[in-house]
Design goal:
8 strands, binds magnesium ion, 303 residues, binds 3-hydroxy-3-methylglutaryl-coenzyme A, alpha/beta, 12 helices, TIM Barrel, 42% helix, eight-stranded parallel barrel
C-alpha cells in the first residue's frame, strides 16, 4: 500500500459510551457505564467520548451524564469529551470538568431539524456561546457534520454543502471537524470527493472521519481517507450503536476492526486491541448481546 500521504500514526476517537449507548433501548446502569469507560480508558485512547449533555427528553439513556463524569477514573493522557448542543449543555459539561466538547450539526436541513430541532444556521447560532465558553475555560471544541455522504430524508448530499458547513464551523473557531457518514452509505470515491471539497475549508490535520459500517464499506472508506492523509478516525468499541434509520443494520465502525486494519498496516495508535475486546466483552455481558465487530467475533470464537 503506497501513498506519500499515508500517516504513520493515527488518533482513534472512541465514541462507544456516547454514540453507541445513545441508541441503546434497554437501560444501562450508571455503574455499568462507568465500568465500561474505565475499561476503555485502560486501553489507552487519547480521546474518549464519554456521554452527552443534551436534553434528557431527547436521549433518556444519557440523562446520567453528570453522574457518569463524576464516577469515572480519569487516566492521564486521555481527554474525556462530551456532546453539547447549546449553552445549557455547556454549563452542565463545564460543571462536570470535561476536557473537550463536541457540537453537532449536519449537511442536510431535514436531518438537523429532526436531530436538534433547528436549522443548520440555527445550530451554528446555538454553538456560538458554547465555543466562547469553551475558549474561556480552555476546553477543546470538536464540530460534527452528520449526513455528509447522504441523508435519510433528502438522499444525496453535495460535497459543496459539507464544505459550506465546515467553513461555518471553522469561522466559529472549532479545533477539529468530524465528518459523519451517519447512515453508512459512503463509498471510497465519495470520500475523495468530500475530502477534496473540504480542503478549501480547512486543513487536513483538523479533519476526522466518522464512518458507519451499515453497508460494509467503512474500512474501505478508512483506507481511502488514509491515502488522502487523514489521521483521525472515530469508532465505537464492539461496533456499538445501531442506525435508527436502518433497523437491524450495524452502525458505527467497530474500534476493534479499525485497530486491526491500522496495526496490520504498521500504523501506530497507542491503543491496546486486547483491552478494547475486554471492554466490549464486559458490555456484551451487560447488554446480553454479542457485539457487531468482526474482529471481536474472530478473537472470541471457540473452536
Ligand atoms: P428543544 O426541545 O428545541 O430545546 O430541543 P429547548 O431549548 O426548547 O428545551 C426543551 C427542554 O429541554 C427544556 O426543558 C430545556 O431546559 C431542556 P423543560 O423546560 O421542557 O423542562 N434542555 C436541556 N436539558 C439538559 N441539557 C441540555 C438541554 N437543552 C435543553 N443541553 C435540543 C433542542 C438540541 C436541546 C434537543 O433536541 C437535543 O438535546 N437534541 C440532541 C439529540 C442527540 O443527542 N442526538 C444524537 C446526536 S448524534 C449525531 O448527531 C451524529 C453523530 O454521532 C455523528 C454521526 O454518527 O453521524 C455526532
Ligand atoms: Mg456514529
Amino acid at each position: 500500500m503506497e501513498s506519500d500521504m499515508m500517516p504513520k500514526r493515527v488518533t482513534v476517537v472512541e465514541v462507544g459510551p456516547r454514540d453507541g449507548l445513545q441508541n441503546e433501548k434497554g437501560v444501562i446502569s450508571t455503574e455499568a457505564k462507568i465500568a465500561f469507560i474505565n475499561m476503555l480508558s485502560a486501553a489507552g485512547f487519547s480521546v474518549l467520548e464519554a456521554t452527552s449533555f443534551v436534553s434528557p427528553k431527547a436521549i433518556p439513556q444519557l440523562a446520567d451524564a453528570t453522574e457518569v463524569m463524576a464516577g469515572i477514573t480519569r487516566r492521564q493522557g486521555t481527554r474525556y469529551a462530551v456532546l453539547v448542543p447549546n449553552a445549557k449543555g455547556m454549563e452542565r459539561a463545564l460543571a462536570a470538568h470535561v476536557d473537550e466538547v463536541a457540537v453537532f450539526t449536519g449537511a442536510s436541513e431535514t436531518f438537523v431539524q429532526h436531530n436538534i430541532r433547528t436549522s443548520i444556521a440555527g445550530s451554528i447560532e446555538n454553538f456560538r456561546p458554547v465555543v466562547s465558553m469553551a475558549r474561556e475555560a480552555g476546553v477543546r471544541v470538536r464540530g460534527y457534520i452528520s449526513t455528509a455522504f447522504g441523508c435519510p430524508y433528502e438522499g444525496a448530499v453535495a460535497p459543496a454543502a459539507v464544505a459550506g458547513v465546515a467553513r461555518e464551523l471553522v469561522a466559529l473557531g472549532v479545533d477539529e471537524i468530524s465528518i459523519g457518514d451517519t447512515i453508512g452509505v459512503a463509498t471510497p470515491n465519495q470520500v475523495g470527493d468530500v475530502v477534496g471539497a473540504l480542503r478549501e475549508a480547512t486543513s487536513l490535520d483538523r479533519l476526522a472521519m466518522h464512518f458507519h459500517d451499515t453497508r460494509g464499506t467503512a474500512l474501505a472508506n478508512v483506507l481511502a481517507a488514509l491515502e488522502l492523509g487523514i489521521a483521525t478516525f472515530d469508532s465505537s468499541s464492539g461496533g456499538l450503536g445501531g442506525c435508527p434509520y436502518a433497523p437491524g443494520a450495524s452502525g458505527n465502525l467497530a474500534t476493534e476492526d479499525l485497530l486491526y486494519l491500522l496495526h496490520g498496516m504498521g500504523i501506530e495508535t497507542g491503543v491496546d486491541l486486547d483491552a478494547v475486546v475486554a471492554a466490549s466483552r464486559y458490555l456484551a455481558g451487560v447488554r446480553g448481546l454479542a457485539p457487531a465487530s468482526r474482529y471481536y467475533a474472530a478473537a472470541t470464537a471457540t473452536a
